[in-house]
Amino acid sequence: DKIQIAEIVDTLRKAELDPETEVILGVPALYLEHVIRMVPAIFNVAAQNAYKVPKGAFTGEISPAMIKDIGCSWVILGHSERRAIFGETDELIAEKVAHALETGLKVIACVGESLAEREAGKTEEVVFRQVKALTNTVKEWTHIVIA
Fold it and tell me: Beta-strand (E) ranges in 55-97?
């Protein structure tokens, strides 16, 4: 909620942060513009999701162009919750990443295994597969952070 957001932003404003460290706040879509207006320019704001196409009948989805239009420069894609709860595949995430980059956003591309995959000793296999999907669609890596 807005009260909690204000507390987080206030804490960050008061923090002694390394000036060489880039701070990016991942924000729910409903609060993106609110946070962009209230944070100092030294902080960046990231949307928590975006869709793979610029426009169309995709009720509830947010395009990278919409995110960019409100002054947001980052997006988080491939989060484990999106993979697990919404069934997002490596291929879909790679398409989303490629389109976000084409639109001019910077991307935090999340990779990682589930607990079951970790317990089965498949961490490296899963992370390799997820990164490999990205390499099939992404040609320029300057604006990507792998998390």
Answer: 74-77
